[in-house]
Amino acid sequence: MTAARRPIPHDSAPRHVTGSARYIDDLPEPEGLLHAALHLSDRVHARIRSIDLSAARAVPGVAAVITVADVPGDPDIAPVVRPEPVLAQDTIEFHGQPVAAIAARDLATARRAARLVKVEYEDLPPLLDLAEAVEKQSLLLPPLQLKRGNAQEAIARAPHRLNGELHLGGQDHFYLEGQVSLAEPREGGDTFVHCSTQHPSEVQKLVARVLGKPLHSVTVECRRMGGGFGGKESQAAQFACIAALLAHRTQKPVKLRLDRDEDMIVTGKRHDFLVRYDVGFDAEGRILGYDLLLAGRGGWAADLTGAVVDRAVFHADSSYWIPDVTITGLCCRTNTVSNTAFRGFGGPQGMAATEYVIDEIARHLGRDPLEVRLANLYGKTERNVTPYFQTIRDNILPELFADLLASSDYRRRRQEIDAFNAHSPHLKKGLALTPVKFGISFTTSFLNQAGALVLIYEDGSVQLNHGGTEMGQGLYIKVAQVVADVLGIGLEQIRITATRTDKVPNTSPTAASSGADMNGKAAEAAALTLRRRLAEVAAPILGVPPDGIRFRDGMLQGGGNVMSFAEAVHNAYIARVSLAASGYYATPGIHFDRTTRRGSPFFYFAYGVAATEVLVDCFTGEYRFTRADLLHDCGDSLNPAIDLGQVEGGYLQGLGWLTMEELWWDADGRLRTHAPSTYKIPTARDLPADFRVRLVNGKPNPAETIFRSKAVGEPPLMLAISGWLALKDAVAAAAGTQRVHLDAPATPERVLLAIEAAKRKLAAAPEAVAAK
Amino acid sequence: MSEPVRFVSRGQVVTVGPDVPHTMTVLEYLRLRLRRTGSKEGCAEGDCGACTVVIGEAVYGRLRYRAVNACILFVAQLDGKALFTVEDLADGEALHPVQQAMVETHASQCGFCTPGFVMSLFACFHHGVTPDDESLKDALAGNLCRCTGYRPILEAGRRMFEIAREDRFTAMEAALLQQLGQLKRTRMLRHSTAAGDFLAPRSIDELIETLETLPDGKSWLLAGGTDVGLWVTKQQRQPRSIVYLGRVAELQQISDDGHAVTIGAGVTYADAFAAIESLHPDFARMVRRLGSVQIRNSGTLGGNIANGSPIGDSMPPLIALGATITLRGRAGSRRLPLEDFYLGYRKTALAPGEIVESVTVPKPGADSRFAVYKLSKRFDQDISAVLGAFHVKLDGGTVREARIAYGGMAAVPARALRAEAALTGASLPDVEAAVAALAEDFRPLSDMRASAGYRLLAAQNLLRKFALEANGQRIRLEAAE
Description:
The complex is a heterodimer of chains A (772) and B (481).
Chain A lengths: L12 H6 L15 E7 L5 E7 L1 H4 L4 E5 L24 E2 L5 E7 L2 H8 L3 E6 L6 H6 L8 E5 L2 H7 L2 E9 L11 E6 L5 E5 L4 H12 L6 E5 L14 H14 L3 E4 L2 H7 L6 E9 L5 E13 L5 H10 L9 E10 L13 H19 L3 H8 L20 H12 L1 H14 L3 E14 L8 E8 L5 E5 L8 H13 L6 E3 L2 E2 L14 H28 L7 E3 L2 E4 L2 E4 H10 L5 E7 L4 E3 L4 E3 L3 E14 L5 E10 L7 H19 L31 E6 L25 H15 L12 H17 L8
Parallel strand pairs in A: 1-12, 10-11, 14-15, 18-19, 28-29
Antiparallel strand pairs in A: 1-5, 2-4, 2-6, 3-5, 7-15, 8-13, 9-10, 9-12, 11-20, 13-14, 16-27, 17-18, 17-24, 21-22, 22-23, 25-26, 27-28
Helix pairs in contact in A: 6-7, 9-10, 10-11, 14-15, 15-16, 18-19
Chain B lengths: L4 E5 L2 E5 L9 H8 L18 E8 L2 E8 L12 E3 L12 H8 L9 H12 L7 H7 L11 H13 L4 H4 L1 H10 L6 E4 L4 E4 L3 H10 L5 E4 L5 H6 L7 E4 L9 E3 L3 E5 L4 H11 L1 H7 L5 H6 L2 H7 L7 H6 L3 E6 L2 E6 L4 E3 L2 E2 L6 E8 L5 E8 L10 E10 L2 E10 L6 E2 L1 H7 L8 H10 L10 H19 L6 H4 L1
Parallel strand pairs in B: 7-9, 8-9
Antiparallel strand pairs in B: 1-2, 3-4, 3-5, 6-7, 10-11, 11-16, 12-13, 12-16, 14-15, 17-18, 18-19, 19-20
């Protein structure tokens, strides 16, 4: 029996449910462990005049208090673009920026001392508003603009034209396990760091940098994270570095764990975007010209914003052929927390913008948005070149639309909903069906590489290690399934080991949905090397050539003879053949030239379609999602149970982003939604009451991926765009006009105010909607 | 002299000495002292459920299992009870039916929230009734999961009883009850620690006497701890003493004289639920959205009242129903209408040394129409942006008497007096005069929960909606779904 393509439970599932799966804060505490706390600035933008640490240092039990001046190496921990000091240097750039760090014998003491740090400031004028940042061209990086043909000319020539503005809110990751690191000084000046991170190699690099040491003196380990979602891609490093600095200073192990409020105040979020569009189209709603501005809020520092905005720009075509197009992405600088990677990485914002515009076009023409989507959909062999000139060769959207239209009974329900709405004055239903096309690969091309290490021990048991990290997405079990099948052994023979920088070096973050694609391939390569070696040893004994041997069910089979895997391993050991192999993978054929703005940045695309129905209370703007039908493409799924979990979980997380999850800053630039009491992520009730989810069957990935599977981490999040546009549909029904505007997150308040605004518009200018 | 706190865990009586500070939470105690790290800290404010544990108590000779948030529960609150944590469930390698169901349905991804879900479902398991979808969603409303989208967790809740109807804890119930019987106290608990004292008087007289001995302003009254717990975990405050109301017998009583229900200030929402339901099903529906199962198992109606928060959800319906509260002090008892209890933002009519003893709520009559509407960004376990409670008495279709109260509209939960006046004499469903008067009654604030504009508009629309519902229509999302 093979392991891949079967719905095998997560390798840690029995440990999750018994509470025996260890997270970093659960590890047995090393002798002499100190606990760390941060002093956060209460200013939004200010120059630091002086820092007085004496009161904090005087607290009994405090072992060290440090500021940026105490960093022995380079204090800059920018992942891409400097400067991003590990602790505030000269100025405060956002409310909550860490200024000092304390290590003490217990957490309460550390936190008490943190409050005693005294800082004198000279306030500076802050820039808080995204629109103002666009206006003033306050940018972190140069813009990226994709251009084909002449959008403005095409728009001017088009029979219909619409323009407008839209705001898409940000989103806190709300991983259940907050940021945490435990750093231990080891002999010879080495440092060992347990870090809840998606990117151990970068943590290693930055810890080495702040300590002023070579990378070989730092080892980083991550067995598992209690959720990541992008929030621990670049931003785990700061806390690892602070823990390491305190450990270095005290020569004792130091643990830094943020509490929930600190975590939400100090760490970056999904970028909120200001969108401005100008679109020309024909009577069927086919887009003829499109000029789109996507302004993302990077916050005070670049972090990964360049790549996030790139991906927004790359996904602003959504699933549609646009002949004449200009898409401009801005990385805006404001005095707010530095935004970062979050599942979808800009893609959701780019796609949501254009799905909104499609919806606007349909409403302008009085057509079902579905028909306008179908009219604009990318072709299979023509109308299939993206605005960055990559030809789409794997488009399965026409089939997915047909499949979901039938299974969701969309057209009949559309009529039923219209009939319901005609007779229900106070409760209105809405329905929307939207596609997903998501490009797979890091757009920063060099990151598309991975390594693995497979060790076979003399008894035939196997240890598996690779550069990918486990954050709940089931990467470890998927890669183990690959190795089990290559070696023809059972999963129970494979021990999955924690991700560590001293086993596989120079790894990329587990991000961009690429974990299984890349680490699966790297592990496969390592396992194939070992299989070849074993086959060569076994061939003379079995009396067949090495490539005539099959590895299956724990046996080597060939020429009618069999040998157990353990026996083959033993033979190889005796024959002095290496039983350890590393594997390496680099995604082939991808490139993008920023100067010509052309290339094929993506190895392939993952697809999906979703239809969501909602019911709105027109008195209050409250709503319930009553039904959702999801159809998602995982190629030949490596593990359908794990992949289904990604699809379902991604959808609900996306729905949270677009509906109830509202980040609220006050006029002084302070985040006021920094705990679950004020920041609301979906609960079990918020799952659509009737939830029908399927994976696409029988469509292996045409690209040569691991067992022809497809990446699944991010793409399903965007299926939730259908939920937001279903709300917009219901708002239109409630207001009695197609001219509606609905920003995200579409909280009950925004829904009610959208209904009221549309009603006012209708009353003021009834002729404006006569087009319908 | 300090007395140890005693509770039962894994069949053993655990004795907690003076080395455990009076404000140490159960979660800290588990993780730092006992090194049982299965229960997690996700928020330290009772909102995420990752720390969920189950408390066993003897009630009418049976063991009652209730899920609570360990992050805002003080260790001394465990006195006399049994504690179950996620590590206790499996029998060696054999998983508990709840755990097995969670594995089979692929209900864990990152696993950090999982112990909390397991414990919430473990409590459900011991309620013995196969939960339907709605009651499962109620049961899990206090557990956040960021990975799965919940579908497989709900499936695990449905499947657990297919695996087994009983577990080994059922078999050990008699022995545990006997153990708990031996922990019963005959004198009040005084757990004195270097950091401060935890006192648990057993009668109201003992309580009043205890309060007299304490210096003003340095001790806290503790009911459920769903707010007080946060003063410790979020604000790092430390009182000299904590006086716990959970053992004061008189405060735990509920009575019903046919016309009115009286609920003791120490009664948890969970225990008050049936009484609240007898007042009006809409009140009960609202309470089911107040906090979560874990919060309602700890939090009390009296605590919600005494807290004085402008956004406490219980006050508007109580005020609309004409509730009175009884205060008790050294000088004896006094009663006043609930709305007169609130003097200003978090300011109440409580005199020093005085406590809230009970609340008395008249039952609406046959000529009454009553409704409560709670508005929040999220349906479950969210603090209201606006909460409106409406109560009218009708002569035919004409309003004879109206009481309207809102939360979230002012510095205190407050009646809409001008709107009430305008509504009196109105013929339903025409309430536009009263709707207009609401704009005179309230000048709400903008904050992270809602803008002032939305608050007022929604408050007005709720009155419109009530007028239609009082007139016989039913306009509910859950009904039309």
